[in-house]
């Protein structure tokens, strides 16, 4: 990696843009970066680090610190640009940190985000943009350089103070520094991973042991008292031997439980025998008690049966007499029916005679029948009078109908006359309504033709307003583009002028010894011109020219955009005025301001007014069809009213003729009916009176004949009843009636007789039972005592069965839990083996294992190997700096109780002793740390993939050396040029300015620091 050019703007103490030409400084191989304290020497190195990694070295990247220069003007942005060659590629990286800038509009500041740009140089196409992403640029540069920021700061920017502390530090501090440089985090991650795996495996083993122990606890709960006999488990989860102890304890519990089960089986068998014997005794005692109680019950029933015998005999006799009286029952029923019929006939006769006149109260049936016949003949002679009376009523109804029709026709005529009286007015109004609708349709068409152009003018006015704002924006953009183009042109002209002033130096750079000069032709070049400060090369001028051309193109595009917007604005304004766009363009060409035309508000009001008028006219025009239909309907109604009035007049004439004919017919009928009616109001009333008389006479005659017939039948029934009672053995019919019983009473008596006989048969059968009689002769039974004995045997059997079931369940549960424990132990085997293997590896990597004799962690072991390489590389330069006296060696010896691995000693060839580096003097410490830094740079470079580091910086520490040692140190640094390296020494020691002719001076000034190149 080689640095070519560094540009610093408003960064750190530098208030303006400063250019550092590393190519010029590196031409001598060794250059000095000097200046007073606080001028900004280290800030140059910070700028290099910031350009590459986007951050300054860690010690100066404090929280809240700003990289922006306090000396810089507000409008000058902070920026660092570095041009370098790395990995065979020429790159240019530009970075700007997050920084405040003035707001473009208004007062105050706004924070601008950090920016990064990366460009690559192509010999054919020049500089090409590669990326603007922070992440992509950082990854690309880190991959090409091959080092992290910490490694770069330690290898390229050699901080001597850090390495002096490194020499005096303990193993832990050295480990931290070496860990950052060589990135041994992967080895620490291996240690952490192994520790994590060990914890995970240990957790799995502990979890499995806890499951086994939980099974043991469940086994103890299932074993109950049996588990108390076994030896308790004392091992804890994670301890060896827990699984075997649990299995052994479970086997003892299972064996004890099986013995308890065998004992329970024997106890249940004995209890079952006792329970069967008690059951037989209980059944026998219950049977004897039943037979004794049955015999006693038979004796009680026999005594009760004898007590009810007289009642049984009375029921038997009463039932037999009632069955005899049943033969007289039909005659009794017939007599009662005849008596009821006679009473009904006598009642009907009394009611019929009460409605007859007094002179007919005692009349016989023949007289009543004769009167009925005469009245019927008179009623038949009234039929013709009835027809005449009905016709008279019909005539009256027809006259009423004619009167109603007359009144209805009169109303129709009056209504028609009233409607026809206003016909002319209605007819004229409807015709006027049609004419108004037709005029509205014509108006709507005219307004529609005006509304569309008005709407287009309104849209054009709105576009005109929007395009006016766009035109203003385009004018501002054009003004800015013109300013930028003018500035780019001035910049290009300035750079071209500066290049022409220094063109001799540019031509001198192309001179070759012995070749003729292209200007004077001489082959000798005694005093070629050199480049001065601020030299401008061809690439810079061409870049400025390119920027100028781009600015001109941007200005041209801005002018074209403004012209296009103006044309569109003029067209929209002309359309809004309803004029031709050419007139607006002509006005603009003539230099006169064209008429802006009506405003958007005016056109909007016009459109709204036309829209409202068009809507009103359209609504009126829409009523044309309805108006025509209303006229047609009115004309039809006019004809209908005329026809109705004519029809009413014709019906009135016909009704007059009909009414006269009906009056003549009604006079004839009234004369005829007056003779027939007599005192009655009508023929119908007279006929109704005759009809009632005929009915009364017929009913009375029938009632007399029915009463006579009922009396005859009653007398016949009395004779038959007397004969039936005598034949049945009764003295009188009344005696037979008193003996009669209904069917339900007879069934009740028969049921009582049958119940007594059934009870007598059952008692006789039970008195013949021999086993009951024999049981009665024995002692009284004791079923309660037998029940208590059986219950006691049953309780013993249940207790024994429960104990056996519990023992069986305990054996089954212990077997199941033992199998689960055995399965867990089998699954635990591989897990425990894996844990033991991982634990050995983790202990070895962590330095806690007995196999690790020096107690070195894995990361410390790797760092010790790297430190040994660094010590070997540093010794090659330390021998030269110390005139062969000192050698750096790595020591892995333990000191005190600390772990070994990162010790660093110096071997003194003069004394032959080996001692700690902390015992070196100040000057010895400096060149030892410098040798260590250079050796570390070689090792880190090799570690990073062999990336060549062509530019190195060494910061401070030279003031502690004497002249001889300083010469030796400078000889060592000068030897680095043999590898085409350039070394920059950062120091304010005055003697170095004499020894190193090529210098970069940092000057501290009030307006900010600046840099000056001092070339030999």
Walk me through what this model shows.
- The protein has about 1000 residues and is of the alpha+beta class.
- Helices cover about 70% and strands about 10% of the residues.
- It is built from 27 helices and 17 strands.
- The protein has a six-stranded antiparallel β-sheet with strand order 2-1-4-5-8-9. Strands 10-14-15-3-16-17 form a six-stranded mixed β-sheet, sandwiched between helices.
- A hairpin with a 2-residue loop joins strand 1 (about 1-10) and strand 2 (about 15-20).
- Helix 7 (about 185-225) packs parallel to helix 8 (about 240-305) and helix 9 (about 310-325) packs antiparallel against helix 21 (about 745-765).
- The radius of gyration is 72 Å and the shape is flat.
Summarize the SSE layout with pairings:
Elements: E1 2-11, E2 14-21, H1 22-26, E3 30-34, H2 41-53, E4 79-86, E5 89-96, E6 99-102, E7 109-112, E8 115-122, E9 126-131, H3 134-145, H4 149-155, E10 157-159, H5 160-168, H6 171-182, H7 185-223, H8 242-307, H9 309-325, H10 329-354, H11 365-380, H12 383-421, H13 423-501, H14 503-509, H15 538-577, H16 581-590, H17 600-621, H18 624-677, H19 683-727, H20 733-739, H21 743-767, H22 770-777, H23 783-846, H24 858-881, E11 886-891, E12 903-908, E13 913-916, H25 922-943, E14 951-955, H26 963-975, E15 982-986, H27 991-995, E16 999-1003, E17 1010-1014
Parallel strand pairs: 3-15, 3-16, 10-14, 14-15
Antiparallel strand pairs: 1-2, 1-4, 4-5, 5-8, 6-7, 8-9, 11-12, 12-13, 16-17
Helix pairs in contact: 5-25, 6-24, 7-8, 7-23, 8-21, 8-22, 8-23, 9-21, 10-19, 11-19, 12-18, 13-15, 13-17, 13-18, 15-16, 24-25
């Amino acid at each position: 990696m080689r640095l070519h050019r560094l540009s610093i703007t408003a960064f750190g103490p530098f208030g303006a843009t400063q250019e550092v030409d590393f190519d010029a400084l590196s031409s001598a191989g060794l250059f000095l970066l000097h200046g007073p304290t606080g001028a900004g020497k280290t800030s140059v190195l910070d700028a290099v680090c910031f350009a590459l990694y986007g951050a300054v070295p860690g010690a100066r990247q404090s929280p809240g610190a700003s990289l922006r220069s306090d000396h810089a003007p507000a409008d000058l942005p902070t920026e660092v640009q570095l041009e370098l060659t790395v990995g065979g590629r020429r790159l240019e990286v530009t970075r700007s940190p997050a920084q405040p800038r003035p707001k473009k509009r208004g007062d105050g500041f706004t924070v601008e985000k950090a920016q990064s740009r990366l460009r690559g140089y192509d010999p054919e196409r020049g500089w090409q943009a590669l990326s603007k992403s922070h992440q992509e640029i950082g990854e690309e540069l880190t991959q090409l350089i091959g080092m992290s920021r910490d490694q770069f700061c330690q290898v390229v920017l050699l901080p001597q103070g850090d390495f002096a502390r490194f020499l005096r530090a303990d193993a832990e501090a050295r480990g931290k520094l070496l860990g950052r440089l060589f990135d041994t985090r992967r080895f620490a991650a291996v240690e952490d991973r192994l520790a994590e795996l060990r914890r995970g495996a240990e957790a799995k083993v502990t979890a499995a042991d806890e499951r086994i122990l939980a099974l043991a606890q469940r086994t103890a709960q299932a074993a109950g008292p049996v588990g108390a006999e076994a030896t308790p488990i004392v091992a804890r989860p994670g301890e060896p031997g827990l699984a075997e102890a649990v299995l052994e304890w479970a086997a003892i519990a299972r064996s004890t439980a099986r013995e308890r089960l065998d004992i329970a089986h024997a106890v249940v068998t004995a209890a079952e025998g006792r329970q069967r014997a008690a059951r037989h005794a209980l059944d026998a005692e219950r049977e004897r008690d039943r037979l004794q109680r049955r015999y006693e019950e038979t004796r009680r029933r026999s005594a009760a049966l004898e007590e009810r015998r007289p009642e049984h005999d009375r029921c038997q006799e009463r039932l037999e007499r009632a069955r005899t009286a049943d033969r007289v029952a039909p005659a009794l029923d017939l007599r009662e029916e005849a008596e009821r019929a006679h009473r009904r006939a006598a009642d009907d006769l009394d009611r019929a005679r009460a409605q007859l006149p007094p002179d007919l109260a005692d009349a016989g049936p023949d007289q009543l029948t004769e009167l009925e016949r005469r009245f019927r003949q008179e009623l038949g002679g009234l039929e013709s009078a009835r027809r005449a009376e009905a016709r008279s009523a019909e005539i009256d109804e027809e006259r009423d109908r004619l009167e109603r029709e007359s009144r209805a026709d009169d109303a129709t005529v009056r209504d028609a006359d009233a409607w026809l009286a206003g016909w002319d007015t209605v007819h004229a109004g409807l015709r006027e309504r049609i004419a108004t609708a037709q005029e509205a349709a014509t108006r709507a068409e005219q307004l529609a033709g005006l509304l569309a152009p008005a709407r287009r003018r309104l849209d054009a006015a709105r576009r005109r307003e929007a395009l006016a704002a766009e035109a203003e924006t385009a004018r501002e953009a054009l003004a800015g583009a013109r300013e930028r183009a003018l500035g780019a042109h001035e910049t290009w002209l300035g750079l071209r002028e500066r290049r022409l002033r220094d063109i001799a130096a540019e031509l001198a750079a192309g001179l070759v010894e012995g070749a003729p000069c292209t200007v004077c032709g001489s082959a000798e070049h005694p005093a070629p011109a050199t480049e001065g400060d601020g030299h401008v090369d061809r690439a810079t001028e061409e870049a400025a020219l390119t920027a100028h051309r781009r600015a001109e193109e941007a200005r041209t595009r801005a002018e074209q955009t403004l012209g296009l917007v103006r044309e569109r604005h003029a067209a929209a304004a002309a359309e809004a005025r309803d004029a031709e766009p050419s007139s607006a363009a002509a006005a603009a060409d003539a230099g006169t301001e064209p008429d802006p035309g009506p405003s958007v508000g005016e056109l909007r009001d016009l459109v709204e007014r036309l829209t409202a008028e068009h809507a009103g006219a359209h609504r009126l025009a829409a009523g044309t069809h309805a108006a025509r239909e209303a006229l047609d309907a009115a004309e039809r109604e006019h004809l209908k009213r005329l026809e109705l009035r004519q029809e009413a007049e014709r019906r009135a004439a016909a009704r007059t003729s009909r009414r006269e004919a009906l009056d003549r017919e009604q006079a004839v009928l009234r004369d005829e009916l007056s003779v027939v009616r007599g005192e009655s109001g009508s023929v119908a009333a007279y006929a109704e009176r005759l009809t009632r008389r005929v009915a009364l006479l017929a009913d009375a005659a029938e009632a007399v004949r029915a009463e006579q017939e009922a009396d005859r039948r009653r007398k016949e029934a009395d004779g038959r009843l007397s004969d039936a009672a005598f034949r049945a053995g009764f003295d009188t019919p009344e005696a037979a009636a008193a003996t009669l019983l209904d069917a339900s009473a007879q069934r009740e008596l028969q049921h009582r007789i049958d119940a007594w006989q059934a009870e007598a048969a059952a008692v006789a059968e039970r008195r013949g039972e021999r086993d009951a009689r024999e049981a009665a002769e024995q002692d009284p039974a004791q079923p309660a005592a037998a029940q208590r004995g059986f219950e006691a045997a049953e309780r013993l059997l249940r207790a024994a069965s429960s104990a056996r079931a519990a023992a069986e369940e305990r054996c089954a549960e212990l077997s199941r839990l033992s199998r689960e424990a055995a399965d867990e132990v089998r699954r635990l085997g591989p897990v425990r083996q894996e844990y033991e293997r991982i634990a050995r590896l983790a202990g070895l990597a962590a330095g806690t294992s007995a196999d690790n004799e020096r107690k070195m962690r894995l990361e410390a072991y790797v760092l010790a190997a790297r430190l040994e390489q660094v010590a070997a590389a540093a010794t090659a330069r330390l021998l030269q700096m110390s005139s062969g006296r000192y050698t750096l060696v790595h020591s892995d010896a333990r000191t005190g109780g600390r772990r070994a691995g990162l010790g660093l000693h110096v071997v003194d060839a003069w004394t032959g002793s080996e001692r700690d580096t902390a015992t070196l003097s100040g000057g010895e410490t400096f060149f030892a740390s410098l040798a260590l830094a250079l050796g570390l740079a070689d090792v880190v470079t090799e570690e990073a993939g062999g990336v060549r580091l062509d530019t190195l910086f060494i910061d401070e520490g030279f003031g502690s050396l004497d002249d001889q040692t300083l010469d030796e140190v400078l000889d060592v640094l000068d030897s680095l040029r043999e590898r085409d390296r350039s070394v920059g020494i950062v120091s304010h020691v005055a003697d170095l300015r004499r020894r190193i002719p090529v210098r970069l001076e940092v000057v501290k000034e009030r307006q900010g620091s600046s840099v000056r190149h001092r070339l030999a």
